[in-house]
Amino acid sequence: MQALLTELASLLGNDDLLTEPADCWPYGCDNSRRQLSPIAVAFAREHAQVAEIVRSCARHGVAITARGRGTGTAGAAVPAPGALCLSFERMNRIIDIIPGDRIAIVQPGVMNGELQSACAAHGLFWPPDPSSAAYCSVGGNLACNAAGPRAIRYGTARENTLGLLAVSGTGDSLRTGCYTSKGVVGYDLTRLVIGSEGTLALITEATLKLCNIPEARHTLRAAFVDFAAAARALTRVMATPLGVSALEFMDRHAVALIKDLPGIDLPARAGALLIVELDGPRSAMQSEVAALRRALTDDGTLEVRVARSDTQREELWAARKALSPALRNIAPDKINEDVVVPVSKMPKLLEILDSLATRHGITMVNFGHAGNGNIHVNLLTDFGRAGERDKARKCLAQVFEAVLLLQGTLSGEHGIGYDKREFLGLEIEPAALALMKKIKQQFDPAGILNPDKLFVPTQSPPASPAN
After folding, report:
1. Alpha helix (H) ranges present in 121-166?
2. Pairing mode of beta strands 301-306, 216-224
3. Looking at the DSSP assignment, which residues form a beta bridge with residue 220?
């Protein structure tokens, strides 16, 4: 081990290598609440350094866990036992923005919010907009194919990335994709690497596809007596040709949690919310807002509010933004999942979730991206109480079974990491799973890139309240 650390110190310098346990400790966790300290933390600044770090670790048989800003919730950035943490936070340059081609070329440590600000100066934006945009990295977005509310109209990270520069588990450099929006030369390795959670290759540069900032944007918030009424409205909205760029929902448990908070002005009978955004040409907005208001209204609608300014828009979004802090205050522990079902089956899933919450005696709060059927299922519990951990895990397994029965998927954007790997075989058939493992072996024959993620573990995972 000392030989590896000596090599890394020579390559990086002492300022870009942490070896003291107290310094390494913060790099042993992510938002999953798991914790396992790495043997050291290396900060790369250039592609060539990443390639050399991988080659050194391969020679010494040391695993590597890549890390952006640690905002992931599935444990993908938590090091495997005895692993090196390779942090990309100092590899944070926007290499170029080319407005004429509507592309940005960036290093993985660039934060999403910083990229958006730089692109906005050219009248452009990168569509992925997770709720952690202010402090999550582009590399992390690509690692788990994060998207956010705008995915309903603009797609996920996969649809908005043209190419990558990456390093395989052998230390070889891989240039995937191209600089153009059309290209069918060879296999699509770009889309394969995106969402692979650092298990196939380490992304060192990305060529991102940008969009023009729309002329106008309007936000509406509709309150309903229950989710059945909200679901009817959702169906009507999805059937329109309107330029809907975000469509969020909150169920009755989420509404009950925040409606009495200061600054949250909701009807007393509110049992569900939809927050809808439109964007497009300014000349079309008046008629589109009117059409959207009609689509949101029936006898189960309590009110529809339209934001007429940026200030009013923030006020309408305040209910959604208040939810996550409120969740942290009402239970010691939380299991946060992001399952997806076809939009038409959301009402059935929410009905099943209510039934499971009652059966297991667990508080469950559900909200998310209604336009994609992406539901953030939050199981609130206290693992300090006897039997609560097992009860929550049994409930979670039944949630996943219900999702798959409704032709859904177990993760929309949080990834698999440590937390869902035991359930992977429920969704992916044995032949496909075997092929995935063979692909992993081709990219990373020594198995040093983020081992024990995605697939069934070969050793015990780090401690977690949810485990």
Report:
1. 138-143, 151-154
2. antiparallel
3. 276, 306
H helices of 297-387, in order, are 310-321, 323-330, 346-360
Give dist(CA 252, CA 250) in Å, integer: 7
For the segment 300-318, what is each residue's pLDDT rounded down to a tens digit?
A: 999 999 998 888 888 888 8
Return the bridge partners of 250, or none.
Answer: 273, 367
The residue ranges of DSSP E strands in 179-215, in sequence order, are 201-209, 211-212
| Chain segment 347-404, per-residue pLDDT in tens | 999 999 999 999 999 999 999 999 999 999 999 999 889 999 999 999 999 999 999 9
Q: Is the dihedral of CA 439, 441, 444, 447 positive or negative?
A: positive
Cα distance between the two ends of the chain: 30
Instruction: Note the Cα 23 to chain centre separation in Å.
Output: 27
Token pair of 447 as six digits: 């198995």
Cβ contact 236:307 at 8 Å = no
Q: Which of 128, 44, 127 is nearest to 87 (CA)?
A: 44
Q: What token pair was written down for 335? A: 């299991």
In the structure encoding, which two tokens stand for residue 75, read together? 């444990």
193 vs 265: which has the higher pLDDT: 193
